[in-house]
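Notes from hallway chat w/ T.B., transcribed later so I don't forget. T.B. wanted the structure written out for a chain they're using in a teaching module, and asked if we could keep both sequence and structure tokens in one place. Agreed to drop them here.
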Amino acid sequence: MTTRARDQRHRPYGADPEDRGRHAAALRGAERVLSRPSADRTTGESLAALTAAAAEVHDPDDGVDVYGDGVVAVLEERVAGLLGKEAAAFFPTGTMAQQVALRCWAGRTGDATVALHPLAHPEVHGQSAFGALSGLRTVHPTHERRLPTADEVHEHPEPFGTLMLELPLREAGFVLPSWQELVDVVAAARERDAVVHFDGARLWECVTHFGRPLDEIASLADSVYVSFYKSLDGLGGAVLAGPESLIAEATVWRHRYGGRVFQQYPTALSALIGIDRELPRLPAYVAHARVVAEALRKGLHTVGVPYARVHPEVPMTHQFQVWLPRSAGELNEATVRQAEETGTALFRRWIAGPVPDLAYTEVTVAAAGLDWSADEVHDALVDFVRRLPPHA
């Protein structure tokens, strides 16, 4: 699939700006949702929330950051400690952080080939940036909709300098290996003299599945990237953590890539707030996501939607997919109508699948969804399905 085709497939709205605006307004105005991402807020609401909570995580009388000192340095130290790494560097985006990390590892290993899954974020959403900007080449140990196994890594016919593992693998349904499988695949990479990098944009939410603390999970990798807006409700930003020498080199490349930003205190403050508020709640979100997924699975069976699927049946994080045999346009219209007419938005945005009349949505269960009972999920699903046109 071409990059353009992938971008079209992942575009959640139609081409009409009016449709996009109506969809966004319906989600923002819904009174009942399973999650309330920061992107649903108005500018005023976001500023008010940040101002109200900032003093809880940082001295408001401290000067603003300048080129990465102050609160940004505090955040770097905090995340390095959480992940058990020697050092960390803040980046404006995860895309830049991973470009820099893998470029640095390529220079150190002498091998610019990166082994990763074809559904990994850089391959699906990266606009061929690895090759275009960093001179990196990618190979795929597996094409299965899961992380590669130790055997697949060990037996891959081409050499590679870095194994990159996205935890969880979003496009495959936010899936994870077992702890032992992860340990084994890392060991297989080491046997090939490859370094290991974790794309941990959502690593925060993996603790429940692995049954291990963050630092033990991160200890398996030579470097780890984490995001602050995907699980922690921050405004944006990312951190790359690893050995002190790697991070020192990464800060040089960060400047070269245009990531040495004059002031970033709002983003850094929101990240610290997320670490304090959202990180401790993630296990509860994961537990309730399993309740919601089971209610959806049973409800779809009850209302008799053919070929519908909740994937995975038991979520491994607080996010999972729902697949339905309808076009994305029909499903998005039903989503908007349900939100506008009932004040409830069970789903958010539907994405066209690989074949006509098949689409999926990503379900996230966060604080706003904790008070939904299984019966309420079922009733909202029945109401949603009633809004779909008859299946041809």
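Follow-up for T.B.: The mean pLDDT is 94. Might be a good example for the class.
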